[in-house]
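quick one, 289 residues, struct below
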Amino acid sequence: MQMNTPPRSTIRLTRRGRVALIATGAVVAATAVAVPLLSMGGDGDEAPTSLVIPEGWRSGQVYAAVDKALRMPAGATKKSLGKAGLKLPDDAEGNPEGYLFPATYPLDRKSTPQTLLRSMVDTANKKFNGAPVAAGAQRNAMNVYQAVTIASIVQSEAATPADMGKVARVIFNRLERGMPLQMDSTINYALNRSTLNTTQNDTRLNSPYNSYQRMGLPPTPIANPGEEAMRAAINPPAGDWLYFVTVKPGDTRFTASYEEHQRNVAEFNRNQSRKTASASTSPSTAPTR
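---
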């Protein structure tokens, strides 16, 4: 199918909806802030009483959080997957990514990696397998696992909850038109990194998660989405948007027009230049002698 998208050397859709122009070889990249482990009720040597899994964490972050909360050696939770008896959909092929549901989980002396992982997956199944999600997925000609995959991209890309529905619509519109998703969040997942500095070389990555080179959805979710992202994935608003860019915090602009989008990108780049110039003259960032 012929792609109705500008050449990849000209434009790319990035995480958080930012778009960078690469014609000169320079990349304006979004950055993702790593979220620290959140546990409550524990100070010093006192064991925590609950574990908070934030929306958008990847499975590796969840495993590390469980290891830390239960004071187990690094990697212990991941190694326990085979013994956890997780009730995952067949499409997942044993990979719980997308099904480690973000929530607060109680901890006690009986808590193990297996019990916590089962609780997360069971919670996800309760949230995702109900009639509203199943019907929404069917209405959009996909299964629930595909809906979770889209929700994971929405969770990773949307700058605010209010933008989630529009981001989902951009994904559907691109898929329906045979356009590659071209989202940095999928490459970021493949490279297992949190700070984005995507280059042209990155977009040539040989990975099924490279949405620049591969058509359609990635093979699995790329994060563990929350309920808002899931609602957006199964019930996006009507719209013809194909591009979006966060010009500044709180100002994400969606459009179907490449020309309009270019103007928005130019404004975004001007704002970034001002921020860089301001930071370089700030006393707090001036070099010390």
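DSSP finds ten helices and seven strands in the chain.
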